[in-house]
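no rush on this but wanted to send it before i forget. theres a chain ive been looking at and ive put its sequence and its fold in token form underneath. i want to understand how the tokens follow from the sequence so walk me through it. thanks a lot i owe you, the record is right below:
>
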Amino acid sequence: MATAENDIMEQLIDSIEEYNYSRYNLQDSIEEAIEILENETNRKTLSQCRFEEDKWYLEIPLKAKRRSIDFNDIKEVVQFNVNINTEDFINIVKCWTASLLEHGYNAETIGTMVNEGLRTFIILTKGFTETNEEELIEEIVNLSIFKQKNICSSTLNFLDYCPYLGEEYASLLYSIKPNIEAKARLLPPSKDILIFSKIIEDYFSRELSELEYRKWFPVWLWWNLTTLIPLRPSEFCTIERDCLINNDGNFYIKLPRHKQRFNNKRQIQIIDEINIPEELYRKIEAYKQITKTFGRTDTLISYLSITKCGNKLNPYMYSLPVFRDHLNDFYEEIVFGEYKVTEITPSGDQLFITKRLLPGDTRHLAFINLNRQGYHPVEIARIGGHSHLQSQNHYFNHVQNFVDLEILELITNVDLGVYKNKIADSESKNDQIISMSFIEKYVLRPSHTDFKRKMRDGYCTDQHQRCKVEDCWECDSWRISEEEFKEKQDVLAKKIKDSESKINEVIGNLKDIYKGIYTNVGNDEFYSANNLEIRKELINKSKRIDDAIRKYVNLAKVKERIE
């Protein structure tokens, strides 16, 4: 029994993420928290959680039980710090707790995070006053692994929500966390992400009615803006209406990021005006024009212009709870409804996904993409709203995921009509890439020339033999007969395997540089964002990944050159 309980507790603590999709805002957070709590009490009969009360009860579904959260316990331990206004601090903790509800944590996890994780850390730091890092680290590492995980993840989540309360402790917690095994947060599979991307691109290429456009533009904008700039979902929802800047043909968007309190020289200056493509700028301008007839809106997205809008405490503000429903509606009505995608493995050749995108997933993708492109971590932090480098530490381990997504997109760069079949053929890199069924379906590119020069493998159709690549198998002008291809499938299989190994090698090289930066920046000038040599090294490694991807994709598309 004890083992089963331990397993449940381990799963619960492993589900705690060290980052929060929202950030505390004095003007809006209490109002949003009240709305979240009202929704909770309306949906769950056993939940009792009014913002002004200091004891909340959250229903545990299927158990006819509830978990209590007593903020008086937090009050007792934070009073050590005379520099903290207890009432204001408790309001922040309440807003954070409400944000956990909104982000999908269950009652037991939330209770564990607030009552045990955060509260224990406040006790250990004597209300955020303890400055002896060595003693504090020793106290934490002497606790059980479960308690260490809970304290680190819960407190980091809280400090990510409101970093101004104890930024100096974030580095300390990150220094402990690598020694604790934890399960990484999983994004949807690359295939599922690409299906969503293809669908939203295809849907908005149509002639939409104004009603359809107004209804789904927020989802389109979320996908196109937050995969470009690492925005928290709450930041995306609260972008102000007057957010666009045209500075002599350079286009910027102003983000709702709050002024920082600079407590130490290591803190990174976050930027709130970021360059965007002109096309995206024009799309946002067009949306503002179309929705201006709905009157006042304090956010870029007009809540009142959405056809399904209901009663809201502040109808002039778009919010994360609304967007979460909005994204789910897009899946239900468009992805599953109009495009007939399913969430279960179909019996026939129907396209399916195994996991939906969540509002915070695009922030992960944007961070990973910036890593993939070789941006210096300090630049990434400025763009992504991180005041400390440790906050982005976990993202660079997922660069492989983004490369997989790039490869899949390049291999399947066709319209949705044939995409369903083609993605199935390219989903398994080794087996299906060389399947003969593909040959029958996709003899897509005849050479359009009678010239044929026999090579060791296949033949060249360019009479001038202007070789652009070293390996004929990768060349657009190279062709192979179906009969010879059948004989030499093992050659292609080996080339693809070697190409995959090369991709993994160059990704590993890029990761090694990032590890060096995270470890040494601030202590060694070589790793500084101002050092052109390290920036050049990052860009070179990124280009090597480009070359490795190009080689792999050209090999994967050999079947298009069968005649």
Observations:
- The first helix runs from residue 2 to 14.
- Residues 270 and 538 are 21 Å apart (CA to CA).
- Residues 190-387 form a domain with the hpI Integrase; Chain A fold (CATH 1.10.443).
- Confidence is low (pLDDT under 50) at residues 414-446.
